């Protein structure tokens, strides 16, 4: 009789298996896994949890990344095997083919809106900061958009490199400076030289004479127009005065229904 | 909510062994025990997110977690196949230590199997009272039953475990 209750007490002294706490924290999204990943930017460390990809950074070493993640994101992070299809998923995400899931908890609703909008910019195109601000319903918050993009926890995956300054300057890039931004955009097929030529002359839009539609210079709907039919336009007012209407795809100006 | 995350992380580290032990005694094998213990904490986390600060402050963590474990076990359909083991290395610690340790391991698992074979109401009472070593009052609170019922169930459960079931009350 005594033996039985003593045995039951020994049963009660069993410990949880190793790694149990980490698995629980990972399950509720409080601990993340990470793996190094090769990109055009070099090695990028990518962290994810059950909600999706949570962070990406170009760190010099795994230790540096772990330290940064714990401090900045504030969760535990452990090295894991990268999901085998990660490379394909990232490519599809960047090409706009398939949506990846991202864990954007910890960001303000405004920051989340900025990043969600940024994901909609197609590969090979760029938009000004002001466009993001207007599209998310805060047309005056251009600076705040810049700050939100600078703090993008998942650069490259969420293509903040596709948001540029209206004056033709490339703007800064958290994922490795303006040089990296230039390199990715060139790789994605953006004609940076042309953009800068236009910006230098104060031209923000291009119109197609035959369709009477004006677009952002990188909008894909204008790509097949003959060069002789393309006109460069300064601003919305002069475009409208010349009989052009804004493109419904890239929405260079609020489309009046 | 970083406050809840912090609290939860501490809770996991503080209670993981006890919750796992209770789960092992309730399910009878380490694989299901890990499932139940994990479910317990996941439910606890989801619940915490909806609780008011006052409710969190007044929470009796031990009894509360045990109550969740009991509910997880009650809700499991008996005899369902265990889910596939997750790929992130969650295999139980079958690393064969020294001989004596392995023996003890086996004995404990064997006892857990026997406890897990008890009808659910005796099992809950015996596990919380004797495996987890809670007081009758705490067990009563965790199970949502009167103390008298708990005492009777513990008594009958122990009798069954000793293989002496002449006054068994059928389920």
What structural class do you assign from the helix and strand content of chain B? mainly alpha
Question: In which range does the helix fraction of chain A lie?
Answer: 25-40%
Please tally the β strands of chain B and state the result.
0
Distance from first to last alpha carbon of chain A: 84 Å
Helix content class of chain B: over 70%
Q: How many domains of chain A? A: 3
CATH class of the largest domain in chain A: Mainly Alpha
Largest sheet data of chain B: none
Strand content of chain A: 15-25%
Which keywords apply here?
heterodimer, A: 257 residues, alpha/beta, Double Stranded RNA Binding Domain, Arc Repressor Mutant, subunit A, DNA Methylphosphotriester Repair Domain, 3 domains, 4-stranded mixed sheet, B: 171 residues, mainly alpha, Butyryl-CoA Dehydrogenase, subunit A, domain 3
Characterization of the model:
In chain A, 36% of the residues lie in helices and 17% in strands. With 257 residues, chain A is an alpha/beta fold. Chain A has a four-stranded mixed sheet. By secondary structure, chain B is mainly α. Chain B has one domain: Butyryl-CoA Dehydrogenase, subunit A, domain 3 (Up-down Bundle), CATH 1.20.140. Helix content of chain B is 70%, strand content 0%. Chain B has eight helices and no strands. Chain B has helices spanning 2-27, 30-50, 53-57, 61-75, 99-116, 120-131, 136-143, 147-161. In chain B, helix 1 packs across helix 4 (61-75), helix 2 (30-50) crosses helix 4 (61-75) and helix 4 packs across helix 7 (136-143). The longest helix of chain B has 26 residues, at 2-27. Chain B starts with a helix and ends in a 10-residue tail after the last helix. Mean pLDDT of chain B is 82; it is low at 81-96. The chains are: A alpha/beta (257), B mainly alpha (171). Chains A and B meet through helix 1 and helix 2 of A and helix 1, helix 2, helix 5 and helix 6 of B.
